[in-house]
Amino acid sequence: MITYEVFAGDLRSLADKGRLRELRGRAGVDFTSNDYLGLAESDELRRAAADAIARGVPIGAGGSRLLRGNHDEHEALEAEAADYFGAETALYFGAGYTANFALFSTLPQRGDIVLYDELIHASVHEGMRRGRADTASVPHNDVEALAARLSRWRAAGGRGRAWIAVESVYSMDGDSPDLAALMALADRHDATLVIDEAHATGVAGPQGRGLAAAFEGRDNVITLHTCGKALGTVGGFVLAPRIVRDFLVNRARPFIFATAPSPLIAAVTRAALEISRTHPERRERLAAHVAFAARELARRCGLTSSGSHILPIVVGADQRAVALAASLQRRGFDVRAIRPPTVPEGTARLRLALSANLAEDDIAALFEALAEDLRRLS
Hints:
By secondary structure, this protein is an alpha/beta fold. Helices cover 43% and strands 15% of the residues.
């Protein structure tokens, strides 16, 4: 009989540390999902799906896009995304994770260097591991440290391209870098700035085009925009100059060998882009919630807000974060504990996410309950 004792031992170790993960269903008021604009279960996207099915858009692609899987809906979505975000081209992947993995495993070449923020997403790390370039971590949101590291690399004989990898809104901290300073640094050093807009897409910038909207379309800027968060569907775009798109189509294994994304979802995502473009009221409601939450968090809990729709409540110990989350779940709030290795050691937290679907009463009630639990578990 096969016992998989190595697996069992590893799982016991995770449980002892308070880090064992398990799948749970949806229950309680949503303070966990990334459905920031409340589109995922909206009537608008349901109608878009029904309309697409009625006009014969298939659910499955049937193959990779380089074979028979390419569909008019994919190409229409990419054209509309490039126009919406202001880039020369867009390439659609089945997931934002896959898009990042493809980007960083394919574009940086041997002799290049990728300088990445220490809090960059796991998908970037996985891409870099499969890539050929050197890599170096830089302190979070520290432009001066990044500039110094880049200068040292050049002084030591680095002759390739430098790639600077950051997020515009960090998924676990809710904060943002100085993108203008990073852009100026990239310009000075002939570097390419890669900006993951996953948590800004649909939420920030003009018409929800993200915090990097002012830099889109430049030949040394590549952005990633996900569809599975504020846009309410699934997938991700790489926005880039045409030569970069063509290189990914020809060299990116996660694109070449994967079954193409669902044409039906591509059609629904086109509707989501149009909603983001033409209906700012969801964004305005979310912005009002962000401001209200900041006031309530300070008044009831004595804590400072991140200033964005992602509010980390850092409590330090893994077990304390788990206990806080469990207590809030019993009170009717869907709040989850985030523990290492997703976040650095000693920074276990609750990650609270705001969405346009919430009511102010929900937010106030959550922070009242959180204040009680923080006092009780202190």
